[in-house]
Design goal:
The chain is mostly helical. The chain has two domains: 2-74, Orthogonal Bundle (Arc Repressor Mutant, subunit A); 84-242, GntR ligand-binding domain-like (Four Helix Bundle (Hemerythrin (Met), subunit A)). Helix content is 67%, strand content 3%. Strands 1-2 form a two-stranded antiparallel sheet. The termini are far apart. The model is unreliable at 1-8 and 80-92 (pLDDT under 50).
Length: 243
């Protein structure tokens, strides 16, 4: 079960990119239909769950749309006013990351409170799976980024409000940009301490949600995200000094 969860969150991002390449290489235009789900599963060698996660994310971005009984179709993303996007296009710029972390605080603090009020046993299980996944990936190059996102997604699902989940799905890997930013550590001890700190913050959030304490869940999430914003700022300053 845990291995299935690991695969879904990591493969969905890859299949999302594969779908975008398929649309481009096949010269599919708005209104053109995607291949059937079974065909996509065979082509990308993944399960229907993974394909569904990738399609949901692309639908949230306005790149795909579905018609009941007809299939999934290419859709032209809505144009953003003055060429701007509500979300950052990528995590390369630290100023964008800091702004986005501030934006996440406004959304995910309330999501944690709602999750504490509305969560069910399945929601808690998914959070626990994400916590376990995080612990298994602290030594690899990913810095447990996928597990981190899985935990925040499980909280979004627990709100029983699909808009919170769609927010996490739309952001994909951009939600946890530490790997893309090239976060580095002086030694393995510093890296371990960093990941241990995040794990303890996640555990505090989980405990509040598990105990149905919405105010404590909001406080724990705010502490976690504000801490993340501070860490990104410190990385940026260290990077600038090292140039």
């Amino acid at each position: 079960m845990l291995k299935d969860e690991d695969a879904t969150f990591g493969l969905a991002d890859r299949v999302k990119l594969d779908l975008m390449r398929l649309i481009e290489t096949s010269n599919l235009k708005p209104g053109d239909r995607l291949p059937a789900a079974d065909q996509l599963c065979a082509q990308f060698a993944v399960s229907r769950t993974v394909v569904r996660e990738a399609i949901v994310s692309l639908k949230a971005e306005g790149r795909l749309r579905s018609l009941r009984g007809s299939g999934v179709f290419v859709s032209k993303p809505p144009a953003s006013p003055q060429g701007l996007s509500l979300f950052m296009s990528g995590p390369q710029e630290i100023d964008d990351v800091l702004d986005f972390m501030e934006f996440r605080i406004a959304i995910e603090v309330e999501a944690s409170g709602l999750a504490a009020e509305r969560r069910n046993e399945i929601n808690l299980l998914r959070m626990e799976q994400a916590l376990a996944k995080f612990a298994r990936h602290t030594s690899d190059k990913s810095l447990a980024a996928n597990a981190d996102r899985a935990f925040h997604r499980a909280i979004a699902e627990a709100t029983n409000n699909k808009r919170f989940r769609l927010f996490v799905d739309e952001m994909g890997e951009r939600l946890i940009p530490r790997s893309a930013l090239g976060a580095s550590f002086a030694d393995d001890k510093s890296k371990t301490e960093f990941l241990d700190l995040i794990q303890s913050e996640h555990r505090r959030i989980f405990n509040a949600i598990n105990e149905r304490k919405p105010d404590e869940a909001r406080i724990a999430m705010r502490h976690h995200l504000e801490g993340g914003r501070k860490r990104y700022r410190e990385w940026s300053l260290a990077h600038d000094v090292g140039r």
